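Sorry, I am new here, but would you mind making up a protein's amino acid sequence and the tokens describing how it folds?
***
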Amino acid sequence: MKLQWFRNKQNHMLGKLVVAILLMGFALRLVFFRSTRLSPILEATPIAKKSVLPISNLPVSVLPISNPPIPVLPISNTAVPVLPIPNPPALVPVQENEDQVPPNEKCDLLNGDWIPNPSGPTYTNRSCSLIESHQNCINNGRPDTGYMYWRWNPRNCELPPFDPERFLVMMRDKTWALIGDSISRNHVQSMLCMLSTVEQGVEVYHDEEYRSKRWNFPSYNFTISVIWSPFLVKADIFEDFNGVSTSEVELYLDKLDKKWIDQYQNLDYMIISSGKWFLKTAIYHENDTVLGCHGCSKGNLTDLAFDFAYRKSLHSVLDFIVSSNHKGLIFFRTSTPDHFDNGEWSSGGTCPRTAPVKEGEIELKDLHTYLRKVELDEFEKAASKASENGVNLKLLDLTMLSLLRPDGHPGPYREFHPFAKDKNATVQNDCLHWCLPGPIDSWNDVIMEMVVNG
């Protein structure tokens, strides 16, 4: 009996001992927990809010320790700490309209150089079915491709590449027209090919000669046209698609071409241009009277220089525009130079270069210099009146930019494989129009920047 009592007593004492040990352990854990709590300053800044305190308000014990220490700066209007970066890396996104030059400097998009562009064009002659055969240089057998791997780079600012998706979004429910001669047709094909990387334009109209056309982009209700009007004023032209004339052009210097003025007020954006067609033999009319003739063999008409008609025609066109109360945006594009060497279109001229040139390595021909002078003179006269009347008229001077690309023309490859049968064949060279893809695509980079940022 005593033995049993002793064993019960022993078990009872052992139980108390276990309980005592557990209580002591709990007490020690509580003391340890209290000694390792976060400092009051850090506790007051919940991690979920990611607030950043100025360095001066942090206790020394919680300053970041590194070698050397990197300060964390307070950022206004945001709760995310950012480390200072002297020069953002190339992949840091930049706001779309962020200025690329100091605010006191004006960005001259047309003063620059052609620089290598390893990524090349955004489309090919296979991906775009709208390239006219005479400008489809790769399909026609042009052996070199280097002319496609350059881009225009202004010297004092950045020129973003043409963004077809953004362009279409901006142009939702809008209408564009390129008005002029075959260079305008060449240009509209470039625009259509670049836009086709987002959506294919659907042809909805063409005239009898397929010279004026219209395309629609259904997803954006965007319409773009090319309007064939090489003189911009009324003209009776007697020649075929290859430029073979049967009679002199009858040119009415004071009457605008209805093909474009009848659509004028319904167009939101226009690119208007003219130029070399005024070199053609023509009889000039004004006030329903024959004034004279350029290059005619008719001895009873006064011989007048082409610039007489070009200046009068441009004056009529620009005066109409600046007095029109038009609320869209109108570009007046200067004429672009050709690059015929050792002759002209009809006298065996060629353009064999395969790379761009730099400013100073090539000169503008006297003819192009004079055309451009007439264009700039007439634009300057019209610009002040346009400003007074609230008409948004802009100069698109692509002459010098284009001058530096003698390599960008079809040359002999305006026809399909011209040397397939005879390597020494004499063929017609085209050193006026542009291969597609080619340098003319960079015109769209400039135009989009002018539309977006003015």
Q: What stands out?
A: The first strand starts at residue 112 and ends at 116. The CA atoms of residues 121 and 395 lie 26 Å apart. The chain has nine helices and 13 strands. The mean pLDDT is 82.
